[in-house]
Each structure stands twice: as C-alpha cells, then as structure tokens.
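Input.
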Amino acid sequence: MNPDQSEGLLKVGSVTVNGGTGDGSTDGFDPWTATAADLSRIPNLGQSAALTQWGIAQLLLDARASGELAGPTLLSAMAMRLRNDMTLPRWIREQYLEAFGRFERLEVGSLDEAFGVRGLNKRTREKYKLRWKLELPVYQSLRNAIAADPDQPLDKGLYEQVGAVIKKSGTYCDQLYRLAVRGGCQDLKDYKAELRAAKKVVATE
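Output.
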C-alpha cells in the first residue's frame, strides 16, 4: 500500500475503512472506480459480491453528484458498507463524521436532527417496503428472461409477463426495473448487446 492509499485509514474493530479511493474489496475489484465493462469481466458475477458492491457504489456516487449525499443517505451508506464488507472513500467518512459531530458537540438535540432524518407514515413505509422487496427479484426475472433469449425485446410484453407472476402491472415492473438500474444494476439493453456479441464470437470460432 502506498502512502496515498494509507492516508486517512480508519480502523473499526478488525475492519479497515479506506479513506482514499479504495484498493478494492473483492479480489482487487474496486467498486468505486470500476466501470460496467470491468464488472462484466468478473467470472461467475452472479455468485460474486462485486455486483452488489458496484451497485451500492454507483448509488452513492450518484447521490454525491446530485448533492443528495445527506443524513439518511449517509446512514444507509454506513449500513451498506457493514453488510457488504466494502471500503468507504474519504468523502463519505468525512460527511458522516461531520453530521455525527454535531450531535457529539451538542449543537443539535438528537441524532435524527443531526442526520436530518424524518419520520415516515405507515402508508409511505409500506410503499417503500414493497418496492425494496420486489425491485431486485423483478430485475433478476427480467435479466433471466433476456439471458434465455437475447433477441426477446425488453418491452411492455415482458414487463407484463413478469408482473403476472407477482400480481402487479407491467407498468409497475417497468418502474421497478428503472429504479434498479438507477441503483446500479446493469441496463439490460447493454446486457442484451453483450450476449449478442458473445453469440457472434462463438459462431465465428
């Protein structure tokens, strides 16, 4: 590890949180700097933690770019890091400690206030719970269908086919798919293109 990488490391128990750009958390794979092309080259991607880690990193990078890396997102970032054994870059660590510091210094009266957390009513909670429960299964069902037939269009018909299984509309499945892509999952149009390209390579061998 060079001096630039070691700067800002924070020990949490036996876990090292990287305060720089990260030196990779899955066999040299760095979710914070990797591209979709890098991800596609990982063997057995479906059984690797890399896809999940990359999706989380993209979600947080997008939040940073849009200025939405605030309280609740910071708390989610820390939770996702602990669940998925990820490195965290310096900019997340600094913002988290800045928010927590306001509570430590008694500048605010609660952690909720320090992190800007607002309560959710029951209806909103149920809406989010259902979305979180179905988002990845819907995405994976669509991906499996494309894998089985790369020429199958990603359209209303496929959304309705998947929606029939979970008793939801095709429009709802379309929305869940788009949320999954925004959260870091691969755009299935790109996945279709990769499968077609691989098929052509095999055909010419």
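The longest strand covers residues 10-12.
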